[in-house]
Amino acid sequence: MTTTSPSLAPTRTTGIPAGFPSGTVEPEYVLTEALGTDPASILAGVGDEDRVYWDRARAFVQAEVLPVIDGYWERGEYPLHLLKRLGELDLLRDGITVEGFAPMSSMAAGLVNMEISRGDGSVATMIAVQGGLALRSVAECGSAAQKERWLPAIARGTEYAAFALTEPTHGSDSVALETTATRTDGGFLLNGEKKWIGNGSVGGVSIVWARGDDGQVHGYLVPQDSPGYTATKIEGKLALRAIWQAHIRLEDVFVPEDNVLPGARTFKDTARVLLATRLGVAWSAVGHATACYETAVQYAKQRKQFGRPLAASQIVQERLARMLSELATMQLLVVQMTRLDEAGTLTPEQASLVKYTCTRTARGIASNARDLLGGNGILLENRVARHLADIEAIHTYEGTETMQALIIGRGITGTSAFA
Q: What's the pTM?
């Protein structure tokens, strides 16, 4: 079920003068160990090839993410070197086939999303943006020449890539986007604004979705140094602070004919990309929830109150059991939906169901863990607060809870309540 967590952590008593009340000195809690939480043994059957990716992601989190991420998150700085490391370690592809790269199954991609999210949500969002959205757009909708040019570079992290769909006035109703692509000599002129665009201001390329003269939505590869492309980093975020989202303005941005994605002919093609990423968000929610649960377990064993560890309290054990039960439900659901995805039978309703269930359940686990840590639960060094905040973001992106519920409801009733 879980491995044994560290014994009581070392205390800060070194150098305390004689007679000083050492019992007032707080221990240095050890809260970031990976406990191998798998209560239903659902992950025990992961194949060797998939486990290679999982183990690589875990090693990266433990050695390179956890030691530094609190500082980046607190300062609101983007550790782009971590994005490049994801590419070097072949952890950016989100299961997408790229020539010259080893096979990566949907299960491996899910395990990577889970494990990186167990470390940090901003770093996991690098995968969601660079791989899940941008790379997948080119892989599914690009020409042979576009794939040759962009897929290896995006997968390796040597080029940054963004997915520019959401607009300031069109979030959940993204199908109604109003950015325009007007035909001109040799290509198109793009005009409009986009918002919440990860990687949209760091250089590289943006896949911009715009409405053409035919009234349909198409995709365009737009280098971010194009004249008329202006990107401003969105400030004041309280979640995913270690990755930058941009507000983009497009004013007569010229896109040559060769930069049009030929396979993006209607919004249905855009929706295909989004369908796959909802499963990835669900896996990320499992990772966040795992981090919160495992932190709570380790803290409960190390924190003493009323002369005994918190873990000896009946109510604490009940709360940990509840969190474990909820986490097991999430694990079972993502694994089953991933099996359907690998079989090619995952439906939009099922993708919405797994995203809806996992992000809302992760919110509850994070809230419970935050409370269990008491006042220490709001400190970055104790991990849970960062995950609690970041879950709020993933609960919204790739479709809000309400929109997922309406997609599920349409499947239940056969009647659309929104479009």
A: 0.93
